Amino acid sequence: MTEKPGRAIVLVMAIILAALPLAPALQTKLPASLPASDITLRIDFGNGTTVTFNGLNGTTVLNVTDSVVDVETNWAGNLAYVVSIDGVSQDQNHWWQYWVNGNYASVAANWYSLQDGDSVLWNRTAFGSQSTTSTDVDSTLIIGGILLGAGGLGFMLLLYVRMSRRGTTR
Questions:
Q1: What is the pLDDT of residue 21?
Q2: 54 φ, ψ (degrees, to nearest 5)
Q3: 44 and 121 in contact (C-beta within 8 Å)?
Q4: Cβ atoms of residues 125 and 95 within 8 Å
Q5: Residue 14 pLDDT > 60, yes or no?
């Protein structure tokens, strides 16, 4: 029994649809080899103290931060988890988070590659706080949702057409 070409198409579409949710993970920024320039670094210690550094150079968020203040990290494999900045440590109620250009960063500080002119904000945030500097929706999520929905509808249409053809030829 030979396999019909339609089954291969259905299999390929199913694999593509299954892989779409992984697309953002594949876009993780890897450390750059060339340093970015004109970086602005702002640190909000969560106690009313904020410091700002302008005109910095570096490759990653961790690299730039460590170039102007003391940074303590815990390492999990090759990922740095920042536990203290300039002597202000996380505690049972607060932890360090960072944003780049107003967008919450979802990778370790040593893996986020900076670009010329980026603005980094470190914020010592209370656990459970939804504090962010941006309410913008990530456009890749919208595009991904639309593509996933369109792909799902296309897949269902393909199945419907194939099933209706089977019903009419028998």
A1: 63
A2: -115, 155
A3: yes
A4: yes
A5: yes
The alpha carbon of residue 8 and the mean position of all alpha carbons in its chain are separated, in whole angstroms, by: 33
**How many residues are recorded in the chain?**
170
Q: Is pLDDT larger for residue 30 or for residue 57? A: 57
pLDDT at 106 over 50: yes
- Beta-bridged to residue 73, according to DSSP, are 82
Give 45-94 as a DSSP string.
-SSS-EEEEEEEEESBHHHHHHTTS-EEEEEETTEEEEEEETTEE--SSE
Backbone angles phi, psi at 13, to 5 degrees: -65, -40
Tell me how crowded residue 9 is: count the other CB atoms within 10 A of its CB: 13
What's the gap between Cα 128 and its chain centre? 20
Characterize the bridge pairing of strands 71-76 and 50-58: unpaired
Say what the alpha-carbon torsion angle 99, 101, 103, 108 is, to the nearest 10 degrees.
-40
The one-letter code for the residue type at 102 is G
CA dist list (Å): 9 to 12, 29, 83, 133? 5, 32, 49, 44
Measuring CA to CA, how many Å separate 27 from each of 8, 119, 126?
A: 28, 20, 29
Contact 125, 46 (CB under 8 A): yes
| DSSP 8-state symbol, 113 | B
